[in-house]
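Following up on my earlier message about manganese (II) ion. Here are the inputs again, as you asked, copied directly from the submission form:
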Amino acid sequence: MIGALLSYTLHAGRHFFFQFEDTKGLSSKLIYVLGGILSQVGHRVLDPLLTKWKRNVIGQRAWKPGRKKRLDAPVAPASTPLSSVPPSPELGKLHLDVEVTEADKQEAARLKAQANKAFTSHDFNAAANLYSDAIEKNPNDSTLWCNRAYTRIKLEEYGYALSDATRAIELDPRYVKAYYRRATCHMQILKPQSAVADFKKILAIEPNNETVRSQMVSTQKLIRKIEFEKAIEVEGEKNPVDRCREIIVEGGCEIDATYAGPKLPQENGKYYMTAEFIQEMIQWFKEGKTLHKRYAWEIVMGAYDHFVKEESLVNVDIPEGVSVDVIGDVHGQFYDVLHLFSLTGPPTEKHYLLMNGDLVDRGSWSIEVILLAFAYKWLYPKYMYLNRGNHEAKDMNRTYGFEGEAKHKHGEQAYKLFAHVFTTMPLATLLHATKPPSPKDPICILSPEGRRRFFVVHGGLFSKDGVTLDEIRKIDRIGRQPGQEGLMCELLWTDPQQAPGRGPSKRGVGIAFGPDVTQRWCTLNGVTGIIRSHEVRQNGYEIEHDGLCTTVFSAPNYVDQSGNKGAFIRIDATGKRVYTQFEASPHPPMKPMAYVQGGLGSLMMA
Ligand SMILES: [Mn+2]
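Thanks, got it. Here's what our run produced:
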């Protein structure tokens, strides 16, 4: 125990010294060097002890979310999430003086070449596995760690990637690319201050690296902006919906004569939505044009009026003769959404649509996608449903493009309106079959009325057992951001894992939940299965946790490089599920994240 504490203190100490180094000056440099030496000694002496202690005392005990997470720390084998990527080997095996035979070095080099090839052909899962095999053979090679970090960035496993990049830096403290990868991870998990620290390290090694210098300056600007916005929030700004209505009453947002796009009809001085307008709007969008700002506001407020009436968990019955299509992340891929809607059909009284969050960010037609979805919500509130995703959130929109795009296309106030209305979107939807399952169907968990029902949510389940549907229904969501913990954060952020129990998140936010967690939760709540999105799946969908947890993802060839299919799930009145896959559609030549502010798009695309 004492050993563990000491090692931890030294580790923390070194982090402190690393921070210290950023504030120039000889004395701090000296302290930093001393800190480094102390920490290395500490690691060498204490780590074997620590590892031993962990094996003996902790054994196979599962990781618990309450325990402090250390992204760069080793994790006991039973606690690591089995995602697409195997976990990092334990720290105990990774001392810097590991003896590697010539034969192992050669084998590692061979595996690395294969991994590089897989990476180039965008098979990131295969690449990550091959780098892991190479690391097994030669854990002293910092390039293997750095390359695997990059691969894991591509897989959006930023928590894992951060730990790999840190390892590469430990092996080679002058490894510029490793600092760059780590800075990327820090940006992705919304820790720009830490990214700046890494940029500074790079500039200390390469003072003439202008790309990094300009990225650092942009990031520092971003930090100031975040602080400025926080200050305003504290002062308490008016609800953006009320503010927009005020501006409209004051005549501050009228349609000018030069506007040549589709026009919303009016009755008694109030705009209303029609199916014809939606068709004209789609056509207008395909011509690369934007709606008048006023119409954008009206559509967002039209959807808002329905969202605010919905509970945080929405109940939707599927009557006889009706089906519901569940759609996963679409991430601003408007041309794929048009293709998808041609497969699902529009929402009607016989056919509902449920979009399961992450409609915006990444793709550069996020405005087109969200306005289309909101227009349908306004027109058909009982046939069109939307759940909030982790990207319907301010901090994500700032980083992943939607904020920049919304301001570019419709201005500052429109973005504020979107940001607020996102907080009114429900967090989950419970789809109830109204007919009993056929006696021939396999036995499954049923509702108290003996019907199949599905819990549809963007991320997944919780860091604790026993959460009831009622608790979810009562979550106070309006005006709130998901944050870093709590039920709302977990609904929007968590991922399933193959190993039982719970594990740390590969993303660095939320947790991972195992098949037993899903089983217990579904049994407790009489839920036949969870349908969630949030993660790319090569086939567009994947049935996991013994059929109780299904992932559906609807952005084919995600960010123009994942090569995955998209899918949607159709559910009928008996709760039968049918899966449909689709391929990516061509789109005009515009890159994902084109609107990320301050020229940070290239960094975020890494
Ligand atoms: Mn997501």
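One observation from looking it over: DSSP finds 21 helices and 16 strands in the chain. Hope that helps, and feel free to reply on this thread.
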